[in-house]
Amino acid sequence: MKNFKIIPFIIIAIVIMIWIGWKYLSHDPSLSQSPNQVQEIDQIIFALKKNGQFSGSVLIAVKGDIIYKNAVGYSNLEDSIPNTLDTKFRIASFTKPITAMLILQLVEEGKLKLYGKLTDYLPEFPKEKGENITIHQLLTHTAGITGESRIANLIDIEKEYYSRDRLLNCIAERELVYEPGKGREYSNFGYALLGLVIENVSEKSYNAVLQEKICQPAGMKNTLEDVTSQQIEKRALGYNYNYFTGLEEASFLDMSFCLGAGQLLSTVEDLYLFDKALYSDKLLNEKSKDLFFNSYGWHYQKCSIGKGLKHIRSNSLDGSINGFGSHTQRIEKDTVFIVALRNTKEYKRQIVIKWPNYMVSRILAVLYGKEYELPKKSGAFAIFKEMIDSGKKEAENLSDKIMTKQTNSYYLNNREFRFFEDELKKKDMEKHASNYRKIYEQIKMR
After folding, report:
1. Domain that residue 408 falls in
2. Digit-coded pLDDT (tens) for 267-310
């Protein structure tokens, strides 16, 4: 019977612990007033540059004012042209919230209805498919339009030029993957249809509508549609990292294939102006802004800060396209905006070239006074590279230095070791793979 008396106290203790944990994790932190913030941020960016983990531009604004902006690496490696703050990068999927905004603006003007049928605005689309698809479903990836991961020959077809009619036919000829409204599949093709709707309804090109409705009101002079065949001033080249040979120019992609979903170029300063305009009524009315942030555009997420378990509520979005990546973070309560645009990435993982949120988590830690570590390099990759370039003995020496803390520049991750062992096997480098495995086993035993 005594045990039964203890149970209520245990339950109360558990409830208190859950409440304390919820309070600690759920409340957004407050901005720090550290006088060394800019220097700390500069250290983070310098470490990323030194490690070869980031090439691109970054901008940070607090309370609406820019406190830091910088550009590192090269926009053109062959000609040694450096990235600058007005270098134009492909912003990849950050094109999508801009497409969503153009749709909402047309709704405000009475030219579109969110629950209007696709075939009302794009009559060329097959009626048997499009009459059950709404604009809302296209915006929310619930229309049943196929995702590109299902397209077996994607690498080949995205290299070709697509007129608007050809792009429409490319999408229309594919079967719906589910009944509209009955599932969700992330679909660039769905946003391409929205791009076509914008052009049909406005009777102007996507780029013309973009300039008129967003760029001019916001003062954005370096944001435009990327046309592959045109010479565009200060447009960066994109690079992918090959684990065996280093940086290589990214595979060709004709941007006509990316309408509405990822075809835009921009700069960090222009995206700052875009964010700033959202605190006004220049782009959307209050009702549309609510839809933009809560339903269709720049969604709210919990983003990690530094080393601990702390998170903060923000609008954030990552974008990825051949050789390029983008990351935007907007914390409305503090008028904080962080944008990082890069022109290097990895084809498979984020080991050598770090995804921008690796940077942003540390920047947030500086801004909000939380603990963080300066960026480190992958020990698994460094040992892998030493094995290939110099041999087993040198790889073992580097492993010993890392394990005995003679160098503090590396982190160790078991999954990365397994990944690089598999990469060696795929290249039929069995002897290297065996030696690499032995070093990995020795590290695990220490």
Report:
1. 377-445
2. 999 999 999 999 999 999 999 999 999 999 888 888 889 887 78
Q: Transcribe 139-203 into DSSP letters.
A: HTT-S-PPPGGG-TTHHHHTTS---HHHHHHHHHTSPPSS-TTS-----HHHHHHHHHHHHHHHT
Question: What value does the CA radius of gyration of the chain take, rounded to a whole number of Å?
Answer: 25
DSSP helix/strand/coil, 217? helix
Asked if 292 contacts 104 with a C-beta cutoff of 8 angstroms, the reply is yes
- Nearest of 274, 276, 186, 222 to residue 90 by alpha carbon: 222
Give the pLDDT confidence score for residue 6 in this predicted structure: 59
Domain membership of residue 438 (yes or no) is yes
3-state SS of 222-264 is CCEECCCCCCCCCECCCEEEECCCEEEECCCCCHHHHCCCCCE
* 404 occurs within a structural domain: yes
CA angle 375, 378, 381 (to 5 degrees): 155
Q: Is residue 183 part of a domain?
A: no
Query: What's the DSSP call for residue 117?
Result: B
Long-range contacts of 70-73 (CB under 8 A, 24+ apart): 70/42, 70/45, 72/45, 72/48, 73/49, 73/343, 73/344
Q: What is the pTM of this model?
A: 0.90
Query: Does some domain include residue 405?
Result: yes
Contact 71, 84 (CB under 8 A): yes
Assess contact for 37 and 62: CB atoms under 8 A: no
Looking at the 3D structure of the chain, how many domains does it have?
1
For the record, the structure tokens of 365 come out as: 């830690």
